[in-house]
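Predicting structure from sequence has reshaped protein science. With that in mind, we have picked out one protein's residues alongside their backbone shape tokens:
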Amino acid sequence: MIKGDFVAFEAVKSERGYIIKDESNMDIGKIQIVEYSKENRNCTFRLCIYKNDSEYIRDIIKSFIEMLFMNEDLYKINILVKEDRELQPFFDLNFHIEGVLTNNTMDASKYYNEILFGIDYDIYTNLKTISLLRLDGKNINLRILTANDANKLLNYYKDNKKHLENFEELRDETFYTIEKQKLIIRQQYVQLLNGNNIFFGIFKDENIIGIIQLYNIVWGIFKSATIGYSIDEKQQGKGYMKEAVNLILKYAFQTLKLHRVQAGTLVDNLKSKSVLKACGFKEIGISEKYLFINGSWQDHCIFYKLNMDL
């Protein structure tokens, strides 16, 4: 029997897998071997977790891949896991997301997406905490959110519920729950992998003071994206949003090599207009009934900025 700090693995040969048990000998999950190649030195397995706890998941992953690397002389290990599981332990152990398999597994008559994680032996032998995409500024930083940020994101939306309702879509009470915020973060991961949306938290002293994103990213001959953002009501007027916009523009133009970034703001949102103009955006004009904001179709001023280095 393979053992970790908190879990043990009991082989089930008839099913090419293992039952995962906790310290009380209770079943908390299972591992199903999907593919194993001695010749290519790789293994792919599906990890099903009943106890969605980061500490347990980290111990399961670490203990099992250690056994595979050491005892089976493998070079590459891939893990399939449902997208609604805690994902941070995979990043902590330096796994990389290699893809998303849509509607790939069924549970309780419902289809779910699966995340495909991978790690090779060279990375495993030098385990370090992965540095998720982060853009550092003088006063703030932008960072891709993880499940560990769900409480901070929820507090941001709760604290600014009244402030943001005039600028964003109508939201019911389920939006203001930890489950909904975790779902939003998982969905952002999928969109990040698909290359059509990059969602950052704006952090000041490890607190979320706003969000900013590049969305509707189009590649090919267009190479364009739209920028959207919001900031804590108490943090307005301090230059943080201007700094955040400039950081994401630098990333869009220098790293992604986009040609054009567009933004839209409500006609009477003078603060947002001021931010865009200060960051070098040019105003095109007014797009009538552009977005459905706070229960009605609202006119927006449209701005754009070009990458002059392309």
User: Anything to note?
Assistant: The first helix runs from residue 54 to 71. The mean pLDDT is 90.
